[in-house]
Amino acid sequence: MDISLLQDANGFIKIAAIDHRSSLKKILAEDKLEDFKGLCTENFAPFVTAILVDPEYGDKARESARQNNVSIILSREQSGYLQNPDGRVTELYSQFNSHKLKKMGASAIKLHLYYNADAANAADQRQVAEKVKMECVAADIPLLLEPVTYTVPDSPYHKGDAIMHAINDLRAFADILKLEFPIDVDDETEDMDAAIPYLSAMTIESKVPWILLSLGMQFDSYKKALGLSKDAGCNGFAVGRAVWQEIDRLSTWPSVEDFIKTTATDRMRQLAELF
Asked: How much is the pTM?
């Protein structure tokens, strides 16, 4: 599947992730979500190859992306997950399949998939990935698959090991993998260099290009993690909250605008320059 529309001249993939929905509603009024996503797209466009946005609140972002010649990736899954005793369940939009998302301007489809190989519903989650991959093949559009690991009761968990299981179980359904950093950077007992063997294994085992997601890391931690990942063969980044999460401390829309135009945009520039 052709992913060239998501790559720069050197083959790197640089994505501004602004497909947050339920989490963003905790920070901004719902009537500001479209404005926020449009604002981010307009300011981040010079430093990215694509924006990742949702089909619900992304109209202004998609229009800005088109005006700035930036590719669009649209989310196939609903926000969040259903929790049941068998594990976290990813819900797909019923009104937005991959064919419709392509008609809306998508150059790729993204699927966020909660996954633990030890969960009782692991096979069901794999079927969700297979379903969306088959849709994408029929629509002739690449799939960016984002497996996010989590703990399950009565089962040992190490993020790096869980990521490797997810890669091996799900890579057949992906044209690009969007992967977590393999250690918990918020755990002060962890040495980030301990991630290097996992990062190298992720590059070897993925079989397709992979990029690093930020998953709410602090910016400085994410930048260091991205540098280590690039050295190990990572093909780019998909970053959201790591560049703008401090807006939850701001009380007015003008202050949010100023933060995005200054601090967040400079952070995006720094990440782009790593590649």
From this structure: 0.96
Which residues in the chain belong to E strands, given as ranges?
Answer: 13-17, 50-53, 71-75, 82-84, 87-89, 108-114, 143-148, 176-179, 210-213, 236-239
Query: What residue spans define the domains of the chain?
Result: 4-274
Other beta carbons less than 10 A from residue 11's beta carbon: 13
Type of residue found at 68: N
Nearest-angstrom CA–CA distance, 26 and 4 = 35
- Find the distance separating the first CA and the last CA of the chain, reported in whole Å: 23
In what helix (H) or strand (E) does residue 144 lie, and over which residues does it extend?
Answer: strand 143-148
**Among candidate residues 203, 228, 225, the one with its CA nearest the CA of residue 214:** 225
> Can you tell me whether residue 78 is helix, strand or coil?
coil
Fold of 4-274: TIM Barrel (3.20.20)
* Paired sense of beta strands 87-89 and 82-84, if any: antiparallel
Select from 128, 94, 110, 97 the least CA-distant residue to 50: 110
- Exposed, middle or buried by CB within 10 Å (0-12, 13-18, 19+), for 29? exposed
* Alpha carbons 137 and 54: distance in angstroms, whole number: 20
Q: At 259, which helix (H) or strand (E)? A: helix 253-259
| pLDDT, mean of residues 254-273 | 98
pLDDT in tens, 67-101: 999 999 999 999 989 888 999 999 999 999 999 99
Sequential DSSP letters for 103-120: HTT-SEEEEEEE--TTST
Cα 89 to Cα 81: distance, rounded to the nearest angstrom: 5
